UniProtKB/TrEMBL annotation:
This is HIP1R protein. It comes from Certhia brachydactyla. It is found in: Cytoplasm. One of its GO terms (biological process) is endocytosis. Transmembrane segments: none annotated. It holds the Pfam family I_LWEQ. Keywords: Coiled coil, Cytoplasm. Gene3D superfamilies: I/LWEQ domain. Residues 207-243 form a coiled coil. Residues 7-248 form the I/LWEQ domain. One of its GO terms (cellular component) is cortical actin cytoskeleton.
Length: 281
């Protein structure tokens, strides 16, 4: 019983309904994601200002563009799926076609679930970033996951589609658009993170006099530590260069009286003999 394919436990009617329900569920998840992003946008405008507002708007706008691209992708995938069923089922019903091609159907369901899940995770990560309770890296990872699940959905649809299908060409174009929008989310997230970190590091306007004095002393300590470390590294570099000259044979011999004299020249060999080529260190 454990080795039996999972599709055998599902009736034909249930398998066909699962595809339609999953595609509808994915569409609903994306619509909900778009609404949540719009709410986050208005909330960010009310609660933040300056650089933080600029960063939040740029990130949320890129997330909105990505959601719109995913929504178009799911719609096109649904149209292509209907085209595949209509052209391949023959006299069979839609449920019978899905049951006959159960592995392909399960792959389609899995890919649709992955797209919907990725969209939901992206919105939740964006919400945490706007509220300053999450990490920017989460948005980047979610964008990569969406790109991967999109490729999975296109691959699952491409297996049964005709090469000359217009819906397939549209789906591939939508997939490229999703990848481009996901890359925009990554770019806006990285640039926003750099802006926020730079501002937080150099913004002293909200500090009291005692806090400023404490920060000043701690910074002086760090400067002295770095200067000492720099001096040590310079000494180390000098010793490394000395040893390099010794190994290269370019150092000068030291006389007994403390004076230095050049290293003795090598003996002259026969005129007809070619002098040896100097070896690199």
């Amino acid at each position: 019983q454990e080795l039996r394919p999972k599709s055998l436990d599902i009736k034909q009617e249930e398998l066909g309904d699962m595809v339609e329900k999953e595609m509808a569920s994915t569409s609903e998840a994306i619509e909900d994601a778009v609404r949540r992003i719009e709410e986050m946008m208005s909330q960010a405008r009310n609660e933040s200002s300056g650089v933080k507002l600029e960063v939040n708007e740029r990130i949320l706008n890129s997330c909105t563009d990505l959601m719109k691209a995913i929504r178009l992708l799911v719609t096109t995938s649904t149209n292509l799926q209907k085209e595949i069923v209509e052209s391949g089922r023959g006299a069979a019903t839609t449920q019978e076609f899905y049951a006959k091609n159960s592995r392909w159907t399960e792959g389609l369901i899995s890919a649709s679930k992955a797209v919907g899940w990725g969209a939901t995770q992206l919105v939740e990560s964006a919400d945490r970033v706007v509220l300053h309770t999450g990490k920017y890296e989460e948005l980047i990872v979610c964008s990569h996951e969406i790109a991967a699940s999109t490729a999975q959905l296109v691959a699952a649809s491409k297996v049964k589609a005709e090469k000359s299908s217009r819906n397939l060409a549209r789906l591939q174009e939508c997939s490229r658009n999703v990848n481009e929008m996901a890359a925009n989310v990554v770019a806006s997230t990285k640039s926003g993170q750099e802006q926020i970190e730079e501002k937080d590091t150099m913004d002293f306007s909200g500090m009291s006099l005692i806090k400023l004095k404490k920060e000043e002393m701690e910074t002086q300590v760090k400067v002295l530590e770095l200067e000492k470390r720099l001096e040590g590294e310079r000494v180390r570099l000098g010793e490394l260069r000395k040893q390099h000259y010794v190994l290269a044979g370019g150092c000068e011999d030291t006389a007994e009286d403390g004076e230095t004299r050049p290293a003795p020249a090598p003996r002259q060999r026969g005129i007809l003999k070619k002098p040896p080529i100097a070896q690199k260190p």
